[in-house]
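Budget justification note: compute hours in this period were largely spent on complex prediction jobs such as the one shown. Inputs:
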Amino acid sequence: MDIVIFLAPFSLGLGLVALGAFWWTLRDGQYQDPAGDAARILIDEPEDRPAA
Amino acid sequence: MAMTGAAPRADLGAFLRRGEGQPETLELLVPDVRCAGCMAKVERAAQAVPGVAAARVNLSQKRLTVAFEAAGGDAAAVVAALERLGYPSTPFDPGAAREAHDREGRELILAMAVAGFGVLNTMMFSVPIWAGLFGQELGSATRTLMMWFSGVVGAPCALYAGLPFFRSAWRSLKARRANMDVPISIGVLLTLAISFSETFLKGRDVYFDAAVSLLFLLLIGRWLEHRLRARASSAAADLLALQAASATRIGPDGALAAIPVAEVRPGDLLLVRPGDRLPVDGEVVDGVSELDNSLLTGETAPVAAAAGAACRAGALNLSGVLRLRATAASEDSALAAIARLVELGAQARSRYVRLADKAAAVYVPVVHTVALLTFAGGWALGLGPREALIRAVAVLIVTCPCALGLAVPAVQITASARLFRRGVLVKSGAALERLAEVDHVVFDKTGVLTLGRPRLVDPAPSVVAMAAPLARASRHPLARTLTEAACDGPIATDVVEYAGLGVEGTIDGRRARLGRAAFLGAPSHGDATELWFGFEGDTKVRFRFEDTLRPDAAEAVTALRARGLTVEILSGDLSGPVGRVAQAVGVRTWRAACTPQDKAGAVEALAAAGHKVLMVGDGLNDAGALARAHAAMAPGSALEASQNAADLVFSGERLTAVVTAVDVARSAHRRALENFGLAAIYNLLATPAAILGFVNPFVAAIAMSTSSLVVTLNALRTGGRRWTS
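Corresponding output:
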């Protein structure tokens, strides 16, 4: 059962990584314009993204 | 003779936003951006304007954010560049309120994410513990280890995810009231405390997972409610931006500057273009035009305006460029008196107690008394303080208003989604609750029972076709109506538009005029809305326009009556037209020539007599009554002030939207009550079990999720039947 001591924190760490990733997407404003992001892939030329 | 023409662009400097040490930015609302192509075109055009560092379109909100390279960016150049492309845009200030709302939404989502993480990960440790409850092999050391893991993960998550509830509970306690968040907060905190002490004492029952999943489910409800409000408020903010919160001031040197309406001072010289609304009360200095007062007073016929004429804020300038001397600041304008009426009404309405809070007022004391009695009774009957406390906490957990927290928001979000698809925008959940209670409907006439815009009466196709080439050359609303009545065709040449009078142009080599009676030298017919047309030296023909009824007005009134509602008309128009409309839709109670104060007073009197009034109005003269009424609806064509005062806004020409809204609101009310019933049944079963000690963490988890699921599924049945004639 000792393995639990390692596995449990490890799985928690994975969970925390996912939570951190979500926090980052939220901070980064990735949910601000879902319709625009979906449409943007149809614009041909490459464009750099300004800080909106 | 003043002629209409493109007036020079105004300076939009007042709308630039300056961040600390950052370049200036400009927010533009671009309603016509619809696809990837539009986005690329708009962004490229804005970036091509000299001085623009970056431009980015937000397609979801139809906004363009422009960042300038240096101070003193030329906002007007961006607007002009977009206009050349065919994308009209309006600068607007997103405002502090909206940003605060965004932040609240982000906090809720993050709380929900943390709670979600907490649920998943505490469950990982709970499952072995539950297995131990059912006699599976689990040593006590391992169990305690699992409990510790569960607590270390669950407690911080619960404390973070619970913050919105703790804050709201604290606010409510400070105001000496108890809302639903008080038992939630007490329940969660007590559960965490008892679970930790049980872990220390190597006990059997810990509820870390229950505390977190409870918060997770409740946060879903909270977030749904927040989304509902956010969508409505962003729609309202867009309308506000579109309906010009700016005025164009003419400086001493003749330079034009766009300024917020609040900054207009008496004595300022203002420019009002055709199609704009007058920002403040004023006196015409020069220019000739016609003013449409229909949203202000309910009168349908346009009024001529020339130098010296006094005119009121909110009137729509129809045909010519007017220069106006402001006679009042915006807070002293005729509009402001109406705004005060709206404010009074809003205060009265904020005293409304919502369904969930009504339920909480009963629920909270009962639950807490039962928990307390369980503890006291259990101890007295010899259970020992520790076991008695665990049972009391079990009571708090199983009765924690998880289902109640979802019962109303889930119903209201379903109902407003249904209504949204049928063209009705619901501004808040409370609006639906109030609408369901309504027993008397008051209609305004102009723009509500009627379409609020003139229609050509008895058109003779040959005559319309004759006048159409000239009508196509004019931007006057009556001329446009005439154009709609005709098919596509040629446009007159050498057109000169005489502001406030009409247009003159050449059709097939002959000079012709279209406009007011005096312009053609014809005898006027007084009160009627009319347009005259004639070739030079030929006979003159008259087009008569009338504000027509909405096609389904009578049908809507009948349907409302069939639902047990009484119907009345209050209008600011003259008694002749009001009487005719009342007869056409079959309403016997009506009053004409009402001032805004009359309308608000009449609604007040009805409320005093015990009626729950639904006011349906569009004009500024209705805004006071809209705010004072128990529930209020406004058509999408209404003025911003009226839309703000209304709870629901319906779009399109169909007045039966009102009937649909009432139906869905009533259905939502029934579902919400059913949900309370279901939650009550669940509590009646679960509470005795908890008191008798049959509830362990596993049973609590199952019971909680089942009751929430049942309530949510029931909510999805809201407003199922589609109402058709």
